[in-house]
Amino acid sequence: MARSSAATRRGWCWSCPRKTAAACCQAPVRMRTWRANACRTAYSSAVNRSRCQRRRAMADGAHAARWLRHFGPSSAHAGANLVCLPHAGAGAFQFASWARPLAGLAHVVAVQLPGREDRVGEPCMTGSAALVEQVAAALAALPPRPLVLYGHSMGASLAHALTQRLRRDGVPVRALLVSGQVPPHATRSRPPLDTPDALLAWLRALDGMPAAVLANDELMALWLPTAWADMQLLDDCFAVANAAAPVRIDVPLTALAGSGDWLAPPERVARWRDCTSAAFHGATLEGGHFFPQNQPAAMLAEVRAALLRALAGITQLADNYYS
Q1: What is the CA angle 305-76-73, rounded to 5?
Q2: What is the DSSP letter of 88?
Q3: What is the pLDDT of residue 315?
Q4: Domain 61-322 classified CATH 1.10.510.10?
């Protein structure tokens, strides 16, 4: 108190943010009350902020749990988050077999679209922009690792759109892998699918489903609405891409084609080169449109190589930064 009194006599207050004693309340009890109220307000704000953060984290976690399926242990030593998007009519669990071969190199995360597998009771989405927004929000809950995206056929188009969205949001994508799909501004080979019979005939021509499944009317009755909705989703994805000016993403891009794929021929898949301003790698594997399922070893070898290139690029960036 002596010090405070001396300061007051000199015309300065040691306690109040307002410098002169004349502007200060000069009442110790009132000053203590003011300080206590200020501390109480700050503490209350911190508690409310913490509660909001916890609620937001819980909401983000619940949203991610709806959209993402994790395969294999979430090792702290995994080099990257490999996020996979399925082809039309398919679900996330087709990527479960990738977890063990890629262990230590990537943590495999697959996007589960509504209307299939464990989300079969939910309505399918046919708007690509809304779907990409939902997936981008779910990816925010992933562990902080380098992000690599992969998609086959319809999944490739969605992965490309998702990459563009994430880059606009400032989220770094270390690599994009696409297979069995032409780039968004290329002419497509798919015929008009105006009826269920036309869709079935097209699926038979792709040779992507067992004949016994295609001949099972009950299974087809369950699956065709999902496939039909995915065709609309893919059409919308191309329409959105063609409505905007072509954009080169600054992300390394790998494009894989099947040697006998008439839907996405190798020479047209190679045009993905025009979609990136970064490094491009193209390869052709034996098989038709569904060569990733028919050539799993060769496919995984290409995925591993792309992951290694992406992680090597990060190491090079770090070396350049610290040198």
Answers
A1: 80
A2: T
A3: 58
A4: no
Sort strands 106-111 and 68-71 into parallel, antiparallel or unpaired.
Answer: antiparallel
Active site residues: 153
CA–CA distance, 321 with 316 (Å, rounded to integer): 9
Type of residue at 171: V
Angle between helices 128-139 and 154-168 (to 10 degrees): 60
Give Dmax over CA atoms of the chain in angstroms. Answer: 99
User: Tell me, what's the pLDDT at 74?
Assistant: 67
pLDDT at 189: 72
Task: Please choose, from the candidates 286, 276, 234, the residue with its C-alpha nearest in 3D space to the C-alpha of residue 255.
Answer: 276
**147 CB-near residues (< 8 Å, 6+ apart):** 80, 81, 83, 139, 166, 171, 172, 173, 174
At 19 the pLDDT is 45
Give me the average pLDDT of each 10-residue run along the chain (323 residues): 44 45 48 51 51 49 93 78 96 96 95 96 96 96 94 98 96 98 85 79 79 83 90 93 86 98 95 97 96 96 97 63 43
Separation in Å, CA 224 to CA 173, 201, 214: 34, 12, 10
Helix, strand, coil percentages (3-state) for the chain, rounded to 5, are: 55, 15, 35
Strands 80-85 and 147-152: parallel
Which residues lie below 8 Å from residue 18, measured CB to CB, with a gap of 6+?
24
Give domain limits for the chain.
61-322
Nearest CA among 122, 120, 181, 172 for reference residue 149 = 172
CA dihedral 52, 143, 129, 192 (to 10 degrees): -150
Nearest to 85 by CA among 233, 199, 185: 233
